Amino acid sequence: MVDSKEKRYKWRREDYRENTKGLLMVNTGDGKGKTTAALGVLIRAAGRGLKCGLIQFMKSKNDRYGEHEALEKLGVEIHTMGDGFTWDTKDPAQDIKTSEETWALCVEKMRSRDYDLLVFDEIIYVLDYKFLDVVKVLDEIRTVRSDQPHLHLILTGRNAPPELVEAADLVTEMKEIKHPFHAGIYAQQGIEF
Q: What residue numbers bound the domain in which 71 lies?
């Protein structure tokens, strides 16, 4: 009889990285669920033994979110780097600096060769706001992917630039049909954060 642990991880071959096609996945659109969908894939990957990391661009580094509690239990590395959501910025120079520092961490993690899946949460917002140059970001991603063809990347945020959509293997657009905010129901612990 096959050992249950062996059966459970049978898919995790010795040559996993050599025979895996890493995907560049984009979750965009004006609807809720971009980060939530990325976290779902992250949980699935971590549950299968993949080495995963989450880097959040805009959520405040001073706050704790429900995903932190859950992902830490799975051994997922988390870096929340932001100064808080920035819709109408009071200090664009600080937002650009924070975005550049966060992107530098993303580059470090991608180049480390230590990961199977990295999620860059809210990076598309900073690309849309022009806090980072989309061409430079895509050039770095292409370079890393050519060196590590097994690496999966998920990028989230509204208004994905056409260049990113073109470069991606998978693009999902979340479309708002109905949202509780419009009925006066605000963000709730365990649902939105």
A: 20-175
- The reply to whether 182 falls in a domain is no
Closest CA to 105 of 85, 78, 68: 78
Nearest to 70 by CA among 78, 60, 62: 78
129 assigned to some structural domain: yes
105 lies in some domain: yes
Asked if residues 121 and 52 have their Cβ atoms less than 8 Å apart, the reply is no
Q: Which residues does 170 contact at the CB level (< 8 Å), separation at least 6?
A: 23, 24, 25, 26
* pTM of the full structure: 0.87
- Model pLDDT for residues 28-45, shown as the tens digit of each residue: 999 999 999 999 999 999
Per the structure, how many domains does the chain have?
A: 1
pLDDT in tens, 8-17: 554 555 655 5
Question: Helix 92-111 crosses helix 134-147 at what angle (to 10 degrees)?
Answer: 10
Which helix (DSSP H) or strand (DSSP E) does residue 53 occupy?
A: strand 52-60
Which domain CATH number covers 48? 3.40.50.300
- For the stretch 63-73, pLDDT in tens is 888 889 999 99
Note whether residue 108 is domain-resident: yes
Assigned token pair, 174: 């979340």
- State residue 15's pLDDT score: 59
